[in-house]
Every structure is written in structure tokens, then in C-alpha cells.
Amino acid sequence: MRWCLALLLCCFLAAVNALSSSGSRLLVVLDESTEKSAYSTLWSDLEGRGYDVSFESPKSDKLSLFQHGERAYDHLLILPPKSKGLGPNLTPKNILEFLNKDGNILLALSGKASTSSAVSSLLLEIDIHLSNDRSAVVVDHFNYDTVSAAEKHDVLLLQRPGPLRPDVKAFFDGEGVLALPRVAPQTLGSDSALVAPILRAPATAYAYNPKEEMPAAEDIEATGSQLNVVSAMQARNSARFTVLGSVEALEDEWFSASVKAPGGKKTPTVNREFAKQLTAWTFKETGVLKVEKIEHHLATEGEVAAEDLNPKIYRIKNETVFNIEVSEYSYDKWVPFEVPGEDELQLEFTMLSPFHRLALEPTSRTETSTVYSAQFVTPDQHGIFSFRVNYKRPFFTNVEEKHEVTVRHFAHDEYPRSWAISAGWVWIAGLWSVIGGFLAFVLVWLYSAPAADKVKKTQ
Amino acid sequence: MPAKRHAASTTSAPAPVTPATLSSGPSTLKTNASAAAIAQHVWEQYLATTPQRTLLLDAFMAFLVLVGGLQFLYCVLAGNYPFNAFLSGFSAAVGQFVLTASLRMQTSDSGSGSSSKPSSKGKNARFADDNEDQGSGTSHERAFADYIFGSLILHFFCINFIN
């Protein structure tokens, strides 16, 4: 009975979590309900993907990210407020605590109004920097929309980004042109491994404050592709924080707009697809890795018996097999995880420092996961070792596995017998010739003993 | 090693040689004899005066030196990979040599000591000999039994150790 109930509960949970791998409660923080209608396509898209969207004003007293010390929402989407700051309930401290409790955040900025210092200090905490002049926008005289910004050149037209590095999967890839009006540029701190750019400005872009008469050439901090249009931070607990420079790109108007680059044809934008990719990644519908099963055992022919799996103890110089089953979440289901590009999943066999660091090769595949395996000989060193898999890449959730085993030395009867080693035959022959010589000597001695006695007696 | 044995016997040989000229030994050595002649004389003296059991002991010790030397040479040339095999093979030869040497001391010394003049030579030579000569001294049978017992223990350990 209880078993049936558990199964039912599992089914319910599965139904509830049909989309994001980490819950469906989404809070949208936006200023006025009038503003809400401007993004109606986005809301309906999100609801169509299974999110339970609720809206709050930053000034509202009811707004709280936590209830009874737990997260009240799984995801947070913050649109830029008209007023200064995000209000008393969305202080940088609260937002970081939300992040620490595995909540995901998508923060949109706008170049229309200057960004509040609360948002700026929040971004400083995660090593994403806004320009000193908080009302700067990105301008490009080569990649702008001639339809809507023929004069100001502040609507960027960009391709969707490819892979960031050869070893990183492209989650935001695709055909078509993105229109990004009035982007608030961000720059990333160089010493943080947790931040990564999603979309960079083109090389010909620069930041410029349209309200000032003369652009101040001397205090330019970053230009060209140093400026980020969309950037991301994935915390060590794999919670995600995305900064979108242009909130207007999410508006219905730009989802369906047609744009024309200088000297190009008029094409519809792909903002809607990009918004889907961006929200899907931020709210953990893509790029989520899960370790299904870890097995290690001695290398043997054929099947391994269940009691021989995952032994607690190995001996030095044992041939050992390690298997790890990894799945990747893709929008609504778990699929086999493929290592992108030239990258590899690595296994470390460590005691303080790694004794082995081996590439795990995909050996088999189930419907939802890929099995990666490596076979190696345990090092000639006994002690407490651990199998470790530490896979941390931009845009993928962190995989960090550690399984401890003992490696013992040879038992005294496990060494090869001396006659099995041909190099030792000379010494074996030496030993036996000494023994044989001894026996022969004893026999001759006993035989010759009376004669010796006689000699003695005669003397 | 046999050369050393000769050297050892040369020290003890002259003592009995001078009084033993009338015995069946070869002719006495001239004062200005060549080195080869001296060596040959010593060798002949050794063969003539040494009891047969002592000769047998010397032959066995020479054999052990040869076996031990070959094993050591092989270790130097071919490496010591099954090191326990080298240790036990080599130490069997060395240990057997030591045991055989002590058997030789116990049997041949008391034999010569009792045969030739006991007091004069014993007192001049070594204190240990003196002790053995005058004290009860182990009998040959007892010495041989000890030798076999010691050797069996040695072989037991070596065979175990060579695995």
C-alpha cells in the first residue's frame, strides 16, 4: 500500500517537474501591471513550458523570496524597475541568499534608464561589472537596425552565439538575427572561473551615453567584444545567474519585428527562440548533468556478480574498471550525455594527489544516459584512495564525485613463486647445488670416517 | 680462495715440517728455492700431511666458493630481480661455507693438536686452540652432528625464503 502511494507521489512529482529539472515556481518582479502586457508572448511561452508564473511589484509588501526559511520560488526573473533600487525585499543580500539556496535568477537590464546602484552592487558581488556611467548603451555603426534606429544606431543586430570554447556545448546556437535594442553593457572580472559570456558585442561596438553631448574618450573602460550583451554566472552549487543587457529584446514588439542590417535584406528576428534558449538555460531546462550510477570492480571476463561490485578494498596492481553513467537534461527529458568537442570526462585515482588521471571513454548507452568507463591498474602504493570525477565546464552543472576505497599491499602468499620467474632459476640452481653438495659431502665424509680414525689412532 | 687456504696452511705447515723430515714427506726445501718450487713444495706437503677428511672439507669449501661466486657474478651481471632468490641462494652458499669452516676447525685442529706435540705448539699459537687442546674438546662425532643440525636449519630457512 505504502509502496503504491510512493509510486503515485513519484508520478505526481514527475508531472509537476515535467519541465525544469529544478522546480517550476517562477517569480517575475516587474514594476507595473501595465508593463506586464508588453511581454505577454514571453509569459505565455513560459507558462506553455510548464512554469507556474507569479508577478510581484518590487514595492509590494507581500514580496518575499523565502517562506519559513525555505525558498518560496525556484526561479526569479527581475525586470529593471522604474524607481531607484529593487526595494527592501530584494536587497543584494537576499538575492545572493536565494542563489545560495539553489535558486536561479535572470536579471534584465535596460539602457533606457540608468541602472540602480543596488543592482550594480549585486552584480559586483558576482564579478560582473557595469560601466561607470550607468546610463551607457552599446552603439555599433556597422551592425544596427536601419528600420528602427537609422539615426541612433543603438539597436544591435547580432548572430546567435556559437560555442564559447571548443570544449563547451553551444546552448544558444542557431540561425537568424537577434535584435537587441539599447543594451546596457557588462564586463566580466577576469579572475573568476564562474562567470562566462553568453553573447558578446561585435568588435565594432562601443559604449556611449546618449544623454551626454560629447563622449568622454579618456575614461573608456572597454570596447568591442570586451563588452558583453548577455553574461552568465554559475555558482559552485550550480545555481545560475544570467544578466541580459537589453530587456526590450524580450518584448512582444521585438519578438515579431523585422529588421534590416545596413546593406542587408529585411529579416524577421529570432528573439523569441533566443529568449526560450536563455530562459531554458537559466531555469535549468538545459545543461543539467546528473550522475545516475557509479560502478567499479576488478576487470574480469564476462559479467560481474553483484557482490563483486563496488568493493571497499583493492590490492595494489589490480586491474580495475570504473564506470560512470551520466545523463543530461534537455528541456523535458533526460538524454545521454555527450562530451562536447575535443573535451573529455576524466577519472582521477587520488591519494592526496592524483596517481592516475584518465580519460573516460563512452562504452555503452541507455535510453537516458551514457556509460563512460576507464580501465587501469591500481598504483604500486597502498593506502586510502578515491575515485574522483570532477567535471566543471561553463554552462554545465558541476559534476563532482568522490568514492573512497582502500588499496592494500600484496598478501604474503600472493607473490609469484620463484620458479615462475625465469631470472631466478640460477639462484634456485645455486641453492639446490649447495644442498646436493652438502648431501654428497656428508655421504663421502661418513664413508671416509674410519680411515681418518685410523690415521688418528696410528698417530 | 683455495690460494688463501694454501696461505693459511703455509703458516701452520713449517711448524710440523722441520721436525717431520724423517717421516714419509718429500725432501726438505733448500734455503734459496724459487717461489714456484716453494709453492709446489707447500702443495705437496699439504697433500701428504693433511688427513683425508680435511682434504674432503677443503674440496667442499672450494666448491661452495665457486657456487657462491657464480651466483654473485650472475647478480651483478643480470640484475637482482627476484631479490629473495638471490639472497637465499647466495646466503646458502655463504652459510654452508661458514658451517663447513667451523667443522674444519673443530675436527682438523684437534686432530693435529693431539697428533703433534701438544704443549709447545698450542701455547705459542692461539689461545682458542690451547683451550680446545687442553679442555675436553668436542669429539668429531659431536662436531659432525652439530654441523648437520646447523646445515639442516640453514637449508630449511633458505628453501622457505626462496619461496
UniProtKB/TrEMBL annotation, chain A:
InterPro entries: DDOST_48_kDa_subunit (IPR005013), OST48_MD (IPR055459), OST48_N (IPR055457). One of its GO terms (biological process) is protein N-linked glycosylation via asparagine. Residues 25-282 form the OST48 N-terminal domain. Pfam families: OST48_MD, OST48_N. Pathway: Protein modification; protein glycosylation. GO terms for cellular component: oligosaccharyltransferase complex. The chain crosses the membrane at residues 425-447. It is a single-pass type I membrane protein. Subunit of the oligosaccharyl transferase (OST) complex that catalyzes the initial transfer of a defined glycan (Glc(3)Man(9)GlcNAc(2) in eukaryotes) from the lipid carrier dolichol-pyrophosphate to an asparagine residue within an Asn-X-Ser/Thr consensus motif in nascent polypeptide chains, the first step in protein N-glycosylation. N-glycosylation occurs cotranslationally and the complex associates with the Sec61 complex at the channel-forming translocon complex that mediates protein translocation across the endoplasmic reticulum (ER). Component of the oligosaccharyltransferase (OST) complex. Belongs to the DDOST 48 kDa subunit family. This is Dolichyl-diphosphooligosaccharide--protein glycosyltransferase subunit WBP1. It comes from Penicillium cataractarum.
From TrEMBL, chain B:
Belongs to the DAD/OST2 family. Component of the oligosaccharyltransferase (OST) complex. Keywords: Endoplasmic reticulum, Membrane, Transmembrane, Transmembrane helix. It comes from Penicillium cataractarum. Pathway: Protein modification; protein glycosylation. The keyword Transmembrane applies. Residues 8-24, 108-122 have a biased composition (Low complexity). It is a multi-pass membrane protein. The keyword Transmembrane applies. The chain crosses the membrane at residues 55-79, 144-162. One of its GO terms (cellular component) is oligosaccharyltransferase complex. Residues 1-26, 107-137 are annotated as: Disordered. Pfam families: DAD. It is found in: Endoplasmic reticulum membrane. This is Dolichyl-diphosphooligosaccharide--protein glycosyltransferase subunit OST2.
